[in-house]
Amino acid sequence: MTEGAVLRTGDIPDGLTAAEAGMWQAFRSGTVYDLRSGDSVADDPHGGQPWGPERTVRARIVCWLLLDGPPALAGRVSSLKLTGVQISDSIDLSGGTVVPYVELTGCRFEREVRLPEARFTTVRLVNCSVPRLEAARVQTEGDLHLPRSRFLSGIRLTDAQIGTDLLLNQAIVYRDRSGRSIAADGLNVGQDLQAELLESHGELSLRSATIGVSLSLRGARLRNPYGRLALNAPQLTVERTLYLTPAGVGGLQLSGVTPVEGTRVQRFECQGGLRLDDGRFGDAVDLDGARLVLTDDQELSLRRVQVPELRFLGERPQRGKVVLSGARIVNLVDRASSWPGPGHLHMPGFTYENLVPQGPFPLAERLEWVAAATAEYNPDPYERLAAVLRAGGEDEDAREVLLAKQRRRRETLPPAAKIVGYAQDWTVAYGYRPGRAAVWMAVLWAAGSVAFAHAGRPDTSGGGPSDPPWNPALFALDLLLPVIDLGQAGVWQLRGGWQWLGAALVLLGWVLATTVAAGATRLLRRN
Fold first, then answer.
1. What local confidence, expressed as pLDDT, does residue 93 receive?
2. What is the pTM of this model?
3. Residue 1: what pLDDT?
4. Which pLDDT does position 501 carry in this prediction?
5. What pLDDT is recorded for position 439?
6. Which residues are bridge partners to 222 per DSSP?
7. By C-alpha distance, which of 123, 169, 172 is closest to 147?
8. How far apart are CA 428 and CA 17, in angstroms?
9. CA 417 to each of CA 55, 94, 306, 405: distance values in angstroms, whole numbers, following the listed order
10. Measured between alpha carbons, how far is 402 from 442 in angstroms, rounded to an integer?
11. What is the pLDDT of residue 43?
12. Spatial contact of 346 and 376, defined as CB atoms under 8 Å apart
């Protein structure tokens, strides 16, 4: 019987094995073709027990059905639904258009599956053993589901177009020859990309990918001991939220909720660098409970990220760096115990509008957070923190931050300027505690008044009868006030050591006055 006749009539062609003939008939009726033995150990597609010819179909016949298969039976929709089937040779649908629905569950593929530039409606490979999936520029109108499947030499989805959802939940993917587990640069997913409890052994690459709703890596374990990056996703766009959070084993989503008692929880873990530079996220980047295992030269890199909310609530990285240079955040939700120490945090140009600490985060620890990010003096992190605190009504805390900035700056000055800085700090705290000026003025005025009272009446400059009477208190006050003239300092002439006392009062008065003026100027500028 010729192929044309077969396709017109739908009859089983010559040369098919019994397993292939059964698959042919199930395709026409749209029913599941199940070749499982009933033994869970023997039916495990990832196990070591061989499957014989009674469970094996050729890849060529599968491709025949999908690309140019027979018509469906009356009242039925043709589809390929295989369970417990082994497919020999390599499936190659490159550039083809596949109309029937495809769902393979618990199947084994002897060789790689090639789908580059192919078109599908929906494809599901559930709990399958696949040497490699080569699907660059593949297009689906619906879903591409690969849950619980194992890929021994990686997945390639470069520039793929997925109409609705891409599912990789509980998949296990090993690296290819280039060191990548999943190469999905330029991937476009219409709705969600779910990769919960994924195991990735190699680099997961999502450069310039676009996700229409959310990207979930809840409970995923990304490991790449072979290179610097376990997740390489610069210029990633996610319309809503990126979840790097725990998952309940069994499918329970745990982001932001308390797990049910007895639920086994698996946190997101990344052993290797994580790069999200220049990413755009519509709602949030959620790192609640995340565990980052970095080497000294690896980073959690969030350079120039833009997101309304960053939830930095993971476990503190013991090594490596957290880099937030140029990132723009609206709400920074964080925990004091999540941030790394000095030398491991970099955030020049990092801007945020609101601080939402989870748990105690006193100002002293917040200042340590800023100091940890500035190995060399940089005023920007201090000024940003002060501005955010002031906008939240915490004016006193904002002044403390700016005072800490001046003290940090002082350490970079030459010795003479340091001495002046220490004097300003001890007296009026660089103008951020102006109440000290009044106290120092009162102390100096009292000390000067007592000293000049014991000095006796000095000579006058004019010596005429119109000279005012000697008043030690007014004389000391006139020396301390650098601008106001009380008519005392210009009349009385001190002699000997008293001149040095008078000069000291004038100098201290100028120091206090200029420091208070500087503090008032800062206050007016802020208002």
1. 97
2. 0.81
3. 45
4. 72
5. 72
6. 200, 270
7. 169
8. 94
9. 86, 73, 40, 16
10. 26
11. 95
12. no
Give which of 229, 263, 138, 234 is closest to 189, Cα–Cα. Answer: 138
- Whose CA is closest to 378, among 341, 356, 345? 345
Tokens 């999936």 sit on residue: 133
Tokens found for residue 510: 């100028």
Region for 342 from its dihedrals, namely left if φ exceeds 0, alpha if ψ lies in -120 to 50, beta otherwise: beta
With H, G, I as helix, E, B as strand and everything else as coil, classify residue 179: coil
What are the tokens at 96? 């083809």
CA distance 25 to 79: 10
Partners of 189 in beta bridges: 162, 211
Q: For residues 299 and 322, what is the distance between their CA atoms, to the nearest angstrom?
A: 6
Structure tokens at 397: 């805390």
pLDDT of residue 190: 97
State the Cα–Cα distance between residues 312 and 274, nearest whole angstrom. 14
The first and second tokens of residue 458, run together, are 């000095």
Q: Rounded to whole angstroms, what are the CA distances from 244 to 4, 154, 253, 320, 360?
A: 53, 22, 12, 18, 23
Structure tokens belonging to residue 332:
């920074």
- Token readout for 421 is 């800085």
Per-residue model confidence as pLDDT tens digits over 60-116: 999 999 999 999 999 999 999 999 999 999 999 999 999 999 999 999 999 999 999
Q: In the numeric block, which tokens belong to residue 151?
A: 């890929």
Give the pLDDT confidence score for residue 527 in this predicted structure.
46
CA–CA distances in Å: residue 108 to residues 43, 198, 247, 284: 10, 20, 28, 39
Return the C-alpha torsion angle 478, 480, 481, 486, nearest 10: 0
pLDDT for res 330: 97
Specify the residue for token string 């909720």.
257
3-state secondary structure at position 470: coil
Angstrom distance (rounded) from CA 435 to CA 433: 5
Residue 16: CB atoms within 10 Å: 16
In angstroms, the CA 4 to CA 296 distance is: 65
Amino acid at 515: T
Structure tokens at 71: 């018509």
> Residue 401 — φ and ψ, nearest 5°?
-65, -45
Per DSSP, the three-state class of 91 is strand
- 3-class SS of residue 185: coil
What residue type is assigned to position 269 of the chain? Answer: E
pLDDT along the chain (527 residues), means of 10: 50 90 95 95 93 96 95 93 96 96 97 97 97 97 97 98 97 96 98 97 97 97 94 97 90 53 83 97 97 95 97 95 96 95 91 94 91 84 90 85 82 79 65 66 72 66 61 70 63 63 72 64 52
> What is the reported pLDDT for 412?
78
Q: Where are the beta strands (DSSP E) in 233-343?
A: 237-238, 241-243, 247-248, 252-253, 265-266, 269-271, 273-275, 280-281, 284-286, 291-293, 299-301, 306-312, 321-323, 328-334
